[in-house]
Structures are given as C-alpha cells and as structure tokens.
Automatic annotation (TrEMBL):
Residues 300-408 form the PRD domain. The keyword Magnesium does not apply. Gene3D superfamilies: 3.40.50.2300, PRD domain, Winged helix-like DNA-binding domain superfamily/Winged helix DNA-binding domain. Keywords: Activator, Repeat, Transcription, Transcription regulation, Transferase. It comes from Candidatus Enterococcus moelleringii. This is Transcription antiterminator. InterPro entries: BglG_antiterminators (IPR050661), HTH_11 (IPR013196), Mga_HTH (IPR007737), PRD (IPR011608), PRD_sf (IPR036634), PTS_EIIB-like_sf (IPR036095), PTS_EIIB_2 (IPR013011), WH-like_DNA-bd_sf (IPR036388). Coiled coil: none annotated. Residues 412-502 form the PTS EIIB type-2 domain.
Length: 614
C-alpha cells in the first residue's frame, strides 16, 4: 500500500521521538483533528504490518516503537525514499523531477513519456510545464517544444550543470549525508545503495563515484575537506560523467597536461576523476577537471577580508538597528570564517547546509539583512558564492550575539555532532547551555570524525543532527538548530538517566570560571607573550593594516585554547597556506608549546590570514 505524504511525516515523527506521543500531541503538531490522526494511524499500522513492525499503543501513555537504532534508521530511509519518489508527488517536486529528467536526457521527450515516468496524467504534466518554464528562467535556461518531436532544454552547459548541482543538493536529507559519509569512512559496514537521483542515469554513476571515493580516502588524510566539499566533489564528478556520456562537455576538448604532477600531490579531485573516468572510458579534459575542482576565485580578485568583515557588520547593524560592532569576538570570528571560506582552494556555491530552513523561518529579518549586505559589499568575483547556505553560516555568528546570556557551565559531558564551523558551534553551545544549565559540550564533531572524537572524549551523551548508530553511548538526534521539542527530549533523557542535578556535581569538575582572578591574569599574560613572540616570528610579513586586529585575535585565541574552545578542524585547515609557510608554522607551533598551549592546525591557519603570503 501507499502512504500519504502526511502519513509518512506522522510515522517519521514517531520514529524520531524517544518518548511516546499521544494522538492529541500529533494532531497539534500537524494542525489537524485527532480524528484525522486516527485515520492516518489505521493506514500506518497496515503499512507496518507488511513489514512485521509493531506500533505500540497504550491509553493515557500514547504511541511508541520498540526498535533498535539500526531498525529505526532502515525504516526512516525507506520512508524518506517513499516520500521523495511517491507515486503522486506535489507540484513543486514534480517540477524539479521534470527538470532533472530533461537535463539527464539526450533526446527530446514527450509529455506522455513524462506522464508515464511520474505516474500522472498528461494534463497534469501540461499544467506543470508552465511552472517548469518559470523555474528555468532564474538559471537562464529555456524549455523548447516542437510538435511531434517533444521538448528539450537549451542554454549554456555551465547553467545546466549548475541547476543539476542545485537540485541534487536541495533534495538531500540528513540521512543521505550520514549514509554517504558512512560509506566513505566506514569500510567494514555492508554497502547500502545511495538513493540520490533515483530513476535517472545519475543514480548508477553516483554509486560508482562513492565507491571510488571511499577507496581513495582510505589511506589519505581527509582534513583537507569538510563533508560539504566531499559531497560537492563527488556530485560534480558524477554530473561530468553523465553529461559527457550525452556529448555535453563544459568547455574545450583540451587534454590535461599535468596529470602526473597532480597525482604526485595526492590531489583528490584529480585522483577521483582519473579513477571514475577510467571506469567509463572518458578522456581527462582540462575544463572538466576545472569544473570538478570548483568555481575558483582568481588571486587577483580577492578582497581585503578584514575591511569586508567590518563593512558587513556595519551594514547589518544599521539595517537591524543593533550594534553588532561592539562585540569584538563577533568581528574576529566572522573575519576568520570569511577568510577561511573565501580563501579555500575549492569553492562550491551549492553546498549542503542543514541550518538554512531553520534560520530563514526563525530569523527572517537577519537573513534578509545579511543577504542585502553581501550583495552590496562583496566583489563581483565572490558574489557567485552568495546563496542561502552562505548567508545561513554568516547568520550563525550574529545569532551568537543575539543569544548572548549564558547559563552556568554544565556537568553532563556531551559531544555534539553537527555541521561544525566558526559560529555554528558557538550558537549551539550558547543555546544548549542557556536551556539546559547542567550540560557541558566538551567537543563538537562532524559526521566524518564523530566515531574517533567520541572514543577520545568518552562523553555521557551524544547529541547529533545526523542519525548515528553503534556508538556505545546514549545518543539523541535533534534538528540542525535544536527545537523546543529537542530541548525537552534532552531534559527528559537527562532526568531519567542521571536524576537530580546535585547527584551529578562530582561526575565532572567545572572548567575555571571566567571571573577567576588567577585564570584571567594567566590568559592576559600568555596572550601578551604569544602576541609579542608571533610578531617577532612573522616580522615584516605581518600586515601593518591588521596589527590591532591581530592583537585582539591572539588574545581571544589564547582564551579559546585555555577554555578548550578551539576552532574545529573540519573545513578550517588550509594545507596550502601551512605548506607555503612551513618554517613560520613550525616556529609558531614551538612558541605555543613553550607556553603550555596545545594549538591545533585550524587555529594556526587562522593566524596566517594576518600574514602576507605573496
């Protein structure tokens, strides 16, 4: 039998809940009557019976499942696939599917063929095509039709691939991300198919790309990339293969001349392109490699990032009538974020960002203000990066300021698995510690390194935006930005597991208080020693125009290290910069070591934004 869209969402809600839910709670959540929910549950039970799964129910208690984590994850994946490729998708989803079908089809296609493919009537398709034409205009593509022949798309190859890239990223779920990253990093697990682009040529090609990527990443350090970049690279390799098989090259047919040099450097895009293109017997064109490597910004096009940061903060402050500029840490962290983001070797406009929808719905004025400021202040070369994901990551820095008051530090040790990065971690930490005063987030991890981080820190609890399993530690899945329901779930879990707050105080001693005279004096003293030492190491290469910002950055850096809040490694390490400055890097690392400060590579990368690297 086929579940309706709401029935799928009701079932997913029950699977995500650690507690039982009543029909009244479900009705309020989905804004329907209790009677409607009961009808939905009748169909859900029939669907579950086919899979020999029981939905438990008890008067006054509610509904719940008794399933293992693996069983829950398997069922969720099936539901998400059913929702994504349901027989009667809504018009928005049909429009996207029609566009993807046209982009992956080498010949004209008729309305009847599209109707058969989607399982709807021809009249429905004819109505949808009006929306298709409107949707295509923003990507400078046109829908062409010819009687007796069918329809096809016209436009540049760059625009066509950009639209494919956008639609694939747009339809990703956190379960897709977890499944892909699990395939890339966990070679002992059974190989489950990745359900992206199902029903299109992309589907089979992407299975091969993921397999080849997993084999390449096994012996290679993955610190060069975060998971969003790995997704973007794998998507682009698969897109390039599919389009070349349709004789659609993105540029000229010039062969690459530096293949061996790039292989010697262990260049991931080159290694992956060579492996996958070899499987499909495709030549290694230079323009295809450049496409896979990303939309790079030329060195001559780079802006003064410090000035850009200051102007963005000023414009957003004026727009929202909030003086964000008074928070020196906001400016410093935003500067570091933009320096790393705009200075990366690989720049991908279409990146997966789990925070976008939450921030757009919860903070629309901030989102619009940031978008407007970026359009006004960023250079033409970097404007290609301005999209919902880019804006959402910047918004996280401002949300830290808006939610500034912190609760006292906690005593239940938590590892938080999320989309780590500057601003993201600060926002989540403040929100969690404000709502749950007896929580201490000891470390943030990404889906790529979660297992090793959890093994190292041995937390009491893992909170994750991705579905995690086999961690040997209590785990709670939450939304990208924890909702009120998520907070309540965590509170209930902690009360049931650890009981009264007072009984936990001996479990984990607190970090030194910020107002401790001794601690404050030590941070100031070490900050000045590090600042003076780094000035001598960098010498004339330290940019004169950023000296004051550099002083502030070093003091805050020492504070972060002292209180175990260093920048996260994933996506914040630039191997090119560290390789270019090996001598200075070693001297700086030695200086920190001499002052009993264990600095990581992400913090050192940020320091080199103040150094002239020419």
């Amino acid at each position: 039998m086929q579940l309706s869209k709401r029935e799928i969402k009701v079932l997913l809600k029950l699977l995500d809940s650690e507690e039982s839910l009543t029909t009244k709670e479900l009705a309020e959540h989905f804004q329907v009557s209790v009677r409607t929910i009961k009808y939905d549950l009748d169909n859900i039970r029939l669907w579950l019976n086919d899979r020999e799964i029981e939905l438990h129910a008890q008067r006054s208690k509610g509904l719940w499942f008794e399933l293992t984590k693996t069983q829950r994850l398997t069922l969720k994946n099936e539901l998400l696939e059913e929702e994504r490729f349901e027989i009667f998708p809504d018009q928005k989803l049909r429009v996207e599917q029609i566009v993807l079908k046209l982009l992956f089809t080498d010949a004209a296609i008729t309305a009847n063929q599209l109707a058969d493919w989607l399982g709807v009537s021809k009249n429905t398709i004819v109505t949808d095509l009006e929306k298709v034409e409107l949707f295509l205009t923003s990507y400078q593509l046109q829908l062409k039709r010819q009687s007796g022949q069918g329809m096809w798309l016209e436009g540049t190859e760059e625009n066509g691939r950009s639209l494919i890239d956008y639609l694939l990223h747009h339809n990703l779920t956190e379960y897709d991300i977890y499944q892909i990253m699990n395939r890339l990093t966990n070679h002992d697990q059974p190989k489950q198919p990745i359900h992206i682009g199902k029903g299109l040529p992309f589907y089979d090609v992407y299975q091969e790309v993921v397999q080849q990527t997993a084999e390449l990443l096994d012996p290679i350090n993955t610190n060069e990339f975060d998971y969003a970049e790995l997704l973007a690279i794998t998507f682009r390799v698969a897109i390039a293969v599919c389009r070349l098989q349709m004789n659609r090259s993105i540029g000229s047919f010039t062969m690459m001349s530096d293949v061996q040099e790039l292989i010697k450097k262990q260049d991931i895009p080159m290694l992956l392109m060579q492996a996958v293109f070899g499987v499909y017997d495709l030549p290694l064109f230079k323009d295809e490699y450049d496409y896979i490597c990303s939309d790079r910004v030329q060195d001559s096009d780079h802006q003064d990032i410090l000035q850009l940061t200051v102007r963005l903060v000023q414009r957003i402050s004026e727009d929202l009538k909030v003086d964000f500029g008074e928070d020196a840490q906001l400016v410093t962290n935003l500067f570091a974020h933009l320096s790393l983001r705009l200075g990366k070797k690989h720049l991908y406009p279409n990146e997966y960002n789990p925070f976008v929808e939450d921030i757009q719905s919860m903070h629309p004025q901030l989102f619009v203000a940031i978008e407007k400021a970026c359009e006004q202040e960023m250079s033409c070369a970097t404007k290609q990066l301005i999209n919902d994901s880019f804006i959402a990551y910047i918004a996280l820095h401002f949300l830290v300021y808006l939610e500034k008051e912190k609760s006292e530090q906690g005593i239940v040790r938590v590892v938080y698995v999320c989309s780590t990065g500057l601003g993201v971690t600060n926002l989540i930490q403040q929100k969690m510690e404000e709502e749950i005063p007896n929580v201490e987030i000891v470390c943030f991890a990404s889906v790529l390194n979660a297992a090793s981080v959890i093994k190292t820190h041995k937390p009491d609890l893992v909170i994750s935006i991705f579905p995690m399993e086999d961690l040997n530690c209590p785990t709670i899945k939450v939304s990208a930005i924890p909702s009120k329901e998520d907070i309540q779930t965590i509170k209930r879990f902690m009360q049931q597991t650890w009981g009264d707050h007072r009984s936990m105080t001996a479990h984990n001693p607190r970090l030194p208080e910020l107002n401790s005279e001794e601690t404050t004096r030590e941070v100031i003293l070490k900050g000045y020693i590090l600042y003076d030492g780094l000035k001598k190491i960098f010498g004339s290469r330290l940019k004169k125009e950023t000296e004051e910002a550099f002083l502030l950055h070093v003091f805050l850096m020492v504070h972060r290290i002292q209180f175990k809040r260093q920048y996260q490694l994933e996506g914040n390490v630039n191997p090119d910069i560290l390789l270019l400055n090996q001598v200075l890097f070693k001297q700086a690392e030695q200086l920190f070591s001499e002052n009993d400060l264990a600095v990581n590579e992400a913090e050192l990368t940020a320091l080199f934004n103040y150094v002239d690297n020419r």
